[in-house]
Amino acid sequence: MEFSFSDKKWLTAKEINSGLEIDRVFALGLHVPNVYDKVLDIDECFLQSELSNNILNFTRIFFKNRNIKPYSTKTHSEYLRNLVIRQSYHTKDLMVNLVTAYEDDELINTYSNLLLKEFSGITTLVNNINQKKASVAVGDYEKVFYGDGFITDMIGNYTFRISANSFFQTNTRQAEKLYQTALDFAELKGDEIVYDLYSGAGTIAIYISEFAREVYAFESVESAIEDAKINAELNDIQNVKFFTTDLYKSFIPIIDENNIPKPSLIILDPPRSGLHKNTVEDVIKINPEKIVYISCNPATQARDIKLFSDSGYKLIKMRPVDMFPHTYHIENIALLITVE
Hints:
Layout: E1 2-6, H1 13-17, E2 27-31, E3 39-41, H2 50-65, E4 80-87, E5 94-100, H3 105-118, E6 124-129, E7 141-146, E8 150-155, E9 158-163, H4 172-186, E10 193-197, H5 203-208, E11 214-219, H6 222-234, E12 240-244, H7 252-257, E13 265-268, H8 277-286, E14 290-295, H9 298-309, E15 313-321, E16 331-338
Parallel strand pairs: 5-6, 10-11, 10-13, 11-12, 13-14
Antiparallel strand pairs: 1-2, 1-4, 2-3, 4-5, 6-7, 8-9, 14-16, 15-16
């Protein structure tokens, strides 16, 4: 779960009508839909464990009691930005990742020591420092204050190392169904060259590696690439290679520089914003026989599929996978093939 600090608390009707004095300048919780700068203070989130809820509430009390202020999106000042809690499903690992606007080692050490004294289940604590104005829970760099700085989990028979800024599906049990569906759509015979775009920590590339000749994975986040390479070693995978590249520009120069063979299949798993037009153009230029497109946003997926359809691809089938219980969000998998 990714929680946000805000100096603009969203007041509920109950709070407004209570007649009580309410702290309006400190909130730790979730953003209100369509209101970028206001956050609903959360005491209990039913999507996470009791331990995670306790960490959430401890964190709020710790910083409020010390008058440490949330980052302001208006003045771009103050300290607290995000609290990200990552808890493994198959292991007992739990990461606390505090995202701040600048360093304060003394404060983080105090927070870390008290937090670890209160909760024995935490296996690592990381401080990400985000100096950008953009409201993202990804730091320009990170400092590890406890543990190894990563957690591990499993999808299928494979073990994965996950660092603070590496993408990893939040619903581990359903992720296996998602990846298996993508593999079923691909109908790999064992001799294919496959490209995996937006590869994150290498989960998809490693999951399908047994069924392809070679898999080439492309990702822009360097820490994710580092995790992916380690994950390949952990699972003794020999036929997957990982490349750092900016998919918002073009990944074709990386292909040319490394003499990477042309793929018969490209797997796409972009963020909610979908594919950049440069990526769409690159995929069309490479012209694989099949495209398996995994999306967490069917709206941007539909937009991108239209672009592929206008360039010689046919949509064959789709299947949604419910990765986000109790929400309207779904992941959707689409298969496209070239038209003869």
